[in-house]
C-alpha cells in the first residue's frame, strides 16, 4: 500500500519530535512540515542526533517559545542528548548566541526535563556539582591554556593579544580558557553548535573562521558541512543559509589547498 | 478647527491598526507613534495593503508578541489581506525568515482569524485543502521547474548546481520548485516580503540579489523600493534600513545601466 | 533667518556623527535622518554620551557595516567615550549580544581608533595590560563574589544554583564573578548597554529583570528609561521598541509599589 505524502510527513514529524503531528494541519503548514521533517531531517549526511545540535541553536535564537520547547523535549525524550550534553549546549549557545536568549533556553531545559520525568513518574535526578572545575584557577595559567585552546580549536598558529578586554578577559580567559575545555560535550557537537550560531549572528569573520576550523580539524567532513548548511537554512531561513553555503564553498577550496600543500 | 499632532497620530494609528490608539500614551511613545503611523504609513509610494507585506515580516522577525498579534489582526480585519494571502505570507516568511519564527507567526494568524470571526459572531470557515499541489511530483521535473523559476525570479541567466544539498534539495527542489510557484500570493507581494526578510537577515548577497531582481523585473519600481526602505527602517531599525538603502542605491545604478544597454 | 528642516537635520547629523551629512540625500532617507538625528538624538532625558551606550549595541547587533563603523568613530572622535570605555563596552556587549557580533564590533573599534589617530597624525597609544585582574582567582571565591554581584546588580535577594553549567560556570563564575565587576565602565553605562541588548535579544525574562533592576537601583530614572525605549526603537525598530516600552510601564508600577512599601 502506498504511503501518502501527508502520512509520510506525519511519520517523519513523529520520529523527530517524539509526539504525533497535529491532527489539523493547514495547507501551508503541511507544505513546510513536509519539507522540513519528511525531506530535510530524513536525509543521510548528518544523524538525527547531530541535526539536533544545529536545530537547537536555531530555535533558541529565533526565540519562538513553542518550537524551542518542542525541540528541547524531543532531544531529551528521544534519548539523543543526555541532560549533561543539553546543559552544556546551553552554555555554549550563551557564548555564541548571547546570554539573554540562553537564559530562556536554560529555563526551557529545566521545564522540559521536569516534564519528561513527570510523564514517566520518576523524580528529577540531582544536578552534577559545578566544582571542582577542570580548568586552572591561576589567571596566568588560564590565559596560557586559553591561548593554546584558541590555537587548537581555530586551527591557527597564533592567539590574539591579552591586552584588550574582549580578547583577554573574554576570549582567552573564559571562552577558550574555560568554556571550550569543559567536559560533557564532544568537539564535533561543539562545532555544530558554533557554526549554527555564527551563521545566525552572521558577522563575517567568525563564520569564516569557524567553518574553516571545523573542516580543517576534520571534525566535520565536507559533506557533513554541506548538510549542515541545508539543515540550518530550513530552520533559520534561506538568506543566512545562502551566506553560510557561500562561505563553505570558499573554505573547502582553502582547506583542500592547504591539505594538498601539506601532503606534498 | 486645527487637528493637533496627537489627534493626527491617533487617527493614523486607528486607520492602520483598525482599533483606537491607547488612551494613555507617554511622551516618548507618542514621538514614535507619530513618526511610524502619522508620517510613514500615510506616505504615498506604497499602499496601506503593500506596507502590510513589509510590516508583517518585520514584526514576525522581531517576535515581539504584541505588535505581531496587532498587525496580523489589523491586516485581516481591515480586509487588506485575505486569509489565503496571509497564510501564504507565513509560508514565504518561513523560507526567508526561518521556520521557528514562522511557527509562532502561524499560530498568531490562527488565533487572530478566530478572534475576528468571534467578534463578528461568525464561524471560522474551513481551510483550503493542500492537495492536489500545482507543482510536479517527479523529482527531475521539480528540479527543472525550480531551475526555470530560479532564473525568472532572480532575473539571472543561470541556476545553481543541483549537486549540493543547500542548492539542490533546498533552493531548487523546494524554494523555487514549489514555494515561489504556489498560487495565492502575487509576485509583487512575494517580492515585498522577500526584500524585508533579506534586509533583516542581512546576509550581503541575498539583499543585493533580491533588491536587484525586484527592480529588474519591474515588479517593484525605484520609488516603491525607496519607500520600502523607509518603511522597513521605521519597523526594523535605522541601521539595517541604512544598509538596505545603500544596496538599493547601488542596484538602481546597475539596473539603469542594464536597461540602457538593452535599449541601445 | 529661519533654519530649514533639512538644515536642522544636517546640523543634528553633524553634531552626533562628527562628520558632515551626505550631500545627496533621497527624500525617504531625509525623512528617516530627520526623525533619528534631528528629533530623537536632540531630546533631553539622556545626554548624547548616554545615547551612545544605547546606539552602539543596536548597530553592533544589526551588523550593518557602515552604521557600526560610523557610530564607533563618532563616539571616540567626539571624546564622548574613552577607548577604555569603548573596549569595555565591547566585552559587555559580547556577553549580552553574543561573541560573533562582538568580534566584528571589536575589529571595528581597533580600525576606527587607528583611523582617528591617523587623521590627527598621532601614534596609537599602547593598550592597558590585562593582568593583574581585580577579581579573585580561587573558584570558590569567584563564585561567592559572583553570587553577591548577581544579587546586587539584579536587586534580588537570591542567586541561582551553581550546579548548572549555564548558571554556575557562566553566569556566576564569569558574567557576575568577573565581567560586571571590571573597572573601566560605570554602572549606569553598563545598564544602558544591557537594557539595549536584552531588548534586541528579546527573551522575556531578561528584559523584565534588567529593566526592573536598572529602575530599582535608581541608576536609571523612570524618565531616562522611557527615553531609552524611544532611542532604542528608533535604532532597532518599532516592534521590539514597543515590547520594551510595555515592559517598562509594568516595571515602573512594580518598582513604585515596592518603594511605597519600603518607605511605609
UniProtKB/TrEMBL annotation, chains A, B, C:
Q: Which residues form a coiled coil?
A: none
Q: Which PANTHER family does the entry mention? A: 4-CARBOXYMUCONOLACTONE DECARBOXYLASE FAMILY PROTEIN, CARBOXYMUCONOLACTONE DECARBOXYLASE-LIKE DOMAIN-CONTAINING PROTEIN
Show the GO MF annotations.
Answer: peroxiredoxin activity
**Which Gene3D superfamilies does the record cross-reference, listed alphabetically?**
AhpD-like
Name of the protein this chain belongs to? Uncharacterized protein
Amino acid at each position: 500500500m502506498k504511503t501518502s505524502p501527508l502520512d509520510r510527513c506525519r511519520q517523519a514529524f513523529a520520529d523527530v519530535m517524539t509526539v504525533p503531528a497535529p491532527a489539523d494541519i493547514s495547507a501551508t503548514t503541511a507544505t513546510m512540515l513536509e519539507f522540513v521533517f519528511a525531506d530535510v531531517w530524513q536525509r543521510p549526511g548528518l544523524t538525527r542526533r547531530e541535526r539536533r545540535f544545529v536545530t537547537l541553536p536555531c530555535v533558541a535564537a529565533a526565540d519562538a517559545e513553542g518550537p524551542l520547547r518542542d525541540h528541547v523535549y524531543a532531544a531529551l525524550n528521544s534519548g539523543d542528548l543526555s541532560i549533561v550534553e543539553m546543559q552544556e549546549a546551553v552554555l555554549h549557545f550563551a557564548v555564541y548566541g548571547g546570554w539573554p536568549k540562553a537564559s530562556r533556553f536554560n529555563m526551557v531545559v529545566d521545564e522540559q526535563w521536569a516534564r519528561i520525568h513527570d510523564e514517566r513518574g520518576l523524580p528529577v535526578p540531582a544536578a552534577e556539582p559545578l566544582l571542582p572545575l577542570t580548568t586552572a584557577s591561576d589567571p596566568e595559567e588560564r590565559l596560557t591554556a586559553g591561548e593554546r585552546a584558541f590555537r587548537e580549536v581555530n586551527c591557527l598558529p597564533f592567539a590574539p593579544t591579552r591586552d584588550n578586554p574582549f580578547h583577554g578577559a573574554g576570549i582567552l580567559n573564559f571562552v577558550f580558557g574555560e568554556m571550550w575545555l569543559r567536559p560533557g560535550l564532544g568537539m564535533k557537537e561543539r562545532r555544530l553548535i558554533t557554526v549554527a550560531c555564527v551563521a545566525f549572528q552572521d558577522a563575517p569573520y567568525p563564520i569564516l573562521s569557524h567553518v574553516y576550523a571545523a573542516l580543517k580539524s576534520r571534525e566535520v567532513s565536507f559533506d557533513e558541512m554541506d548538510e549542515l548548511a541545508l539543515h540550518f537554512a530550513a530552520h533559520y531561513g534561506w538568506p543566512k543559509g545562502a551566506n553560510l553555503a557561500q562561505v563553505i564553498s570558499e573554505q573547502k577550496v582553502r582547506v583542500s589547498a592547504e591539505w594538498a600543500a601539506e601532503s606534498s
